[in-house]
Specification:
The structure is a single chain. By secondary structure, the chain is of the alpha/beta class. The chain has a domain of 202 residues: NAD(P)-binding Rossmann-like Domain (Rossmann fold), CATH 3.40.50.720. Helix content is 43%, strand content 15%. A 6-stranded parallel β-sheet has the order 2-1-3-4-5-10, with helices on both faces. Strands 6-9 form a two-stranded parallel ribbon. α8 crosses α11. The longest helix has 22 residues. The structure holds NADP nicotinamide-adenine-dinucleotide phosphate. The site of NADP nicotinamide-adenine-dinucleotide phosphate has 27 residues, from α1, α4 and β4.
């Protein structure tokens, strides 16, 4: 099998490549073009690259991911998340490859306190969420697709909430963190395993794949500090209070980002470990890499 990974310089793409290598897939069978080599917003570049490499699976991790900046630059966000995805789907069709599209909890409005099932109606509230959902719709038109919605991503290769909170703890003895947004974190190491398992199957369709369990950002922070042996105090605040403290407006975030992972088990795959377990292993990875 040959794999094409987009977004390898990002958090998820990096770990997807590592997972493939750890399963004994040869480097030559893994293509990881950076933007300079295959800008996904360039139709011809995508067509040419895919036609040459002829992957069996495209794992599409690249995206415009800056949720707040997207509000001020919807065009760029749309170009990458919608146009880019369109070209990749067309190219997949060209060579009959499967495509895995990574999507987000932000396709939902977050008003439902119960976990969202994969087939529940979307209602994105931000530019980022809307463009990711438009991407989903394009992917769904091609039969050999998997859509995998994830949330609150953390991995070794890039910036994320865990690294930010660890940095904040170096300078502050207490910190205010939002306690009224509930979701589940996703460790890219665990997700990469699931994605590769998925890619070997023909169980096409939509999945939710975060780590197990739910928490608020404040609870997540408490776990991070506890596991890292830090005594920094976490003050639980509402989203409104946080915006006031931070002094800047953000893109609207869903209050309840609880994704039901039932479809993982229903299709014979293994659920990801709990978010607490994932956090502990991530901190150990940061330590090993000298980042903690
Ligand atoms: N981060 C989260 O919390 C989160 C939550 C839910 C869903 N997701 C989804 O999960 C996926 C992976 O996220 P991540 O956090 O790993 O992303 P990330 O670290 O922000 O990396 C984004 C990647 O996209 C690439 N990219 C951007 N524009 C491109 C273009 N025009 N052509 C080719 N590549 C381009 C970047 O490459 P360059 O470095 O070369 O620019 C980078 O490798 C995305 O689909 C995202 O929407 C993320």
């Amino acid at each position: 099998m040959k794999y094409l990974i987009t977004g390898v310089s990002g958090q998820l793409g990096y770990d997807v490549k590592r997972e493939l290598l750890s399963r004994g897939i040869a480097e030559a069978d893994i293509a990881t073009p950076r933007t300079a080599e295959m800008d996904i917003t360039d139709k011809q570049a995508v067509e040419k690259y895919v036609e040459n490499f002829r992957p069996d699976v495209i794992i599409h991790c690249a995206a415009y991911t800056n949720v707040d900046e997207a509000e001020g630059d919807p065009e760029t966000c749309r170009k990458v998340n919608v146009e880019g995805t369109k070209y990749l789907v067309q190219a997949a069709k060209q060579v009959n490859a499967k495509i895995i599209y990574i999507s987000t909890d932000y396709v939902f409005d977050g008003e439902n306190p119960d976990p969202y099932q994969v087939n529940e109606p979307a209602n994105p509230q931000s530019i980022y969420g809307r463009t990711k959902y438009e991407g989903e719709k394009l992917v769904r038109e091609y039969p050999k697709h998997f859509i995998v919605r994830i949330a609150w991503v953390f991995g070794i290769n890039g910036r994320n909430f865990v690294k930010t909170m660890l940095r904040v703890a170096e300078e502050h003895t207490e910190v205010s963190v939002v306690d009224d947004q509930i979701g589940s974190p996703t460790y890219t190491v665990d997700l990469a395993k699931f994605l590769i398992d998925l890619s070997g199957s023909d169980k096409y369709g939509t999945y939710h794949a975060t780590n197990e369990g739910f928490c608020s950002w404040a609870e997540f922070t408490e776990e991070i500090y506890q596991d890292a042996g830090l005594s920094t105090k976490v003050n639980r605040v509402s989203t409104e209070q946080y915006i006031e403290i931070a002094g800047r407006q953000q893109a609207k975030r869903p209050h309840y980002s609880k994704l039901s992972k039932d479809s993982i088990e229903a299709n014979g795959f293994t659920r990801l470990p709990s978010w607490q377990d994932a956090t502990r292993r991530y901190l150990a990875e940061l330590k090993k890499e000298g980042e903690l």
